[in-house]
Amino acid sequence: MKTQIHLIVLSFALATMAEAQQLAQRTQFYLNRLAYNPAVAGSEGSIPVMLNVRQQWVGIDDAPASQTFSAHGFTGKGMGAGILIYNDVAGPARNTGFNLSAARHFKLKSTDRDHSNWLSVGMGALLYNYFIDAEKLTTDPDEDRNDPAIDRLLAENSRLSADISFGVYLTYNALFAGFSAVNLIQTEQDIFTEAFNRNNLRRTYYALVGYRYPLNNVFAIEPAALVKGTESGVFQGDIMVKGYYEQHYFGLSYRTSDAVAATLGLSLRDFFQFAYSYDLTISDLNDYNNGTHELTVVMNLFEPISRDGLVKKVPERRRNPYRRKNR
Question: What topology does CATH give the domain 2-301?
Answer without folding.
Answer: Porin (2.40.160)
